[in-house]
Amino acid sequence: MNISCCYLSHGHINGMAEALLSAGAGLVSVYDPDERKVEKFMRKFPNARVASSYEEVLQDEKVDIVLLASIYSKRAEHAIAALESGKHVFVDKPACTTIEDLERIRAAQRREGRKFGVYYSEHINVASSIRAGELVAEGRIGKVVEVTLLAPHKLRENTREDWFFRKESYGGIITDIGSHQIEQLLFFSGSSDARILTSTVGNFNNPHHPEFEDYGSLVLRLSSGATGYMRVDWYTPESFPVFGDGRLIILGTEGYIEVRKYHDISTGERDSLYLVNGEGTHHEVCTGKVKKRFFADFLSDCENGTEISMKQDYVFKVMEIALRAESEADVEGK
Amino acid sequence: MNISCCYLSHGHINGMAEALLSAGAGLVSVYDPDERKVEKFMRKFPNARVASSYEEVLQDEKVDIVLLASIYSKRAEHAIAALESGKHVFVDKPACTTIEDLERIRAAQRREGRKFGVYYSEHINVASSIRAGELVAEGRIGKVVEVTLLAPHKLRENTREDWFFRKESYGGIITDIGSHQIEQLLFFSGSSDARILTSTVGNFNNPHHPEFEDYGSLVLRLSSGATGYMRVDWYTPESFPVFGDGRLIILGTEGYIEVRKYHDISTGERDSLYLVNGEGTHHEVCTGKVKKRFFADFLSDCENGTEISMKQDYVFKVMEIALRAESEADVEGK
Question: Mutate which of A203, A253, A259, A274 to disrupt the B interface (most B C-beta within 10 Å)?
Answer without folding.
Answer: A253
